[in-house]
Structure formats: structure tokens, C-alpha cells
Amino acid sequence: MYKVIGSTKSRALRVMWMLEELGQPYEHVACGPRSDEAKKYNPSGKIPALVDGDEILTDSVAIMQYLADKHGKLTAPAGTPARAHQDAMTLWLIDEMDAILWAAAKHSFVFPEEHRVPEIKPSLKAEFARSAKILSDRLDGPFLMGDEISVPDLLATHCINWSIGAGFDRVDDKLGAWAKSMRDRPAFKAAATKEG
């Protein structure tokens, strides 16, 4: 059985959601970043981590893609043009949404106060809004990559949810309705209602 290390209020939720979509059982070890528990699995204290047998994997997106590949679901097959398009979308989301949210978090509560630059946050919010508009314009179907849910859908939805919690401007109605449809999935609800 898999073991997911991290809080549901972190990127660990992405991994838990992936496992729920895949129908795979897992143990959830709720803990915060840099906690003693987190450091047992990742010396840096970053979360999430995934324990699969003797292997400990880190980085939420790497874990999600690993699980998708291992179980042959929520992903295009490796070595296909469809997978290259999917990977391009995943990397774009990491660069243009996730990284912006992480930068805002670092300047809000992660960095020691003397290293925070609060003045950067309005520009980060503007950049996120620009990226959200691009994503909305690219959305042409029930899922980002077409007719089937895949890794980028989980990643994008998590980023949109994170942006709401971080006080960013709301995405447009089209993208907002799509994100709501993703949050309405039973697998998302199952992961989001876990304690921690």
C-alpha cells in the first residue's frame, strides 16, 4: 500500500487525489513541511513524499506522473505525441501557475520575515491572472487534454484552488466552472476530506 506524507492543505492533496482517481488504497500521514515527520521521508522537510515499497519519491508532479505511468491511467502513453503535448501542458502549468503561487507563498509566510518582499505580490497576482486567461482560452473540452482526465487537470485545479486561498483574483467564469466540475469529482472530495 502507498503512503502519502503531507498535509491536505499542501501539494500532498494532488497526490492523494491522483490515488483516489486511480482507485489505489493509501495511508495518509498528515504532517506539515519541515516537521520532524516530514524529514523522516525527505531530509529537506518538503512535502509531499510518497512511499512505494522501499522507494521514497518526492515532488508532487513527479509523483503524480509516476503513478499515472505505473497504473496506465490519467496519462497519454510515454513516447507518443499526445504525451509530449501533455508534458508541455504540465510544464507550462508548473512554470506559469504553480511557480507564481509558490513565490507568493514564500514572500507571505515561508521566508523569514526579513527576506520577504511583500511588494512583489501584486505583480505575481497579475501574472497569474494572465496565465489563467491563457489557460481558459486553451480549454476546449471537458478536460485540458481532450476527452479524458489527465495529470494536468489535477495540477491546474489544485493551482486554481490555491490561488483562491491565497487571495488572488478569481479566474474567469469558464475556467471557474471547469474547476468546480473537477472539485465535484468523487475522487477529489474523498482526498480533500481527509484529516490534516
Automatic annotation (TrEMBL):
Domain (GST N-terminal) ranges: 1-75
CDD domains per UniProt: GST_N_GTT1_like (cd03046)
Keyword Transferase: yes
Assigned keywords, A-Z: Transferase
Gene Ontology molecular function terms on file: transferase activity
Transferase listed as a keyword: yes
Coiled-coil intervals: none
PROSITE patterns (UniProt xref): GST_CTER (PS50405), GST_NTER (PS50404)
Top-level lineage group: Bacteria
Residue ranges constituting the GST C-terminal domain according to the UniProt record: 79-196
PANTHER family the UniProt entry points to: GLUTATHIONE S-TRANSFERASE GSTA, GLUTATHIONE S-TRANSFERASE-RELATED
Name the record gives this protein: Glutathione S-transferase
Lineage, broadest ranks: Bacteria, Pseudomonadati, Pseudomonadota, Alphaproteobacteria, Rhodobacterales
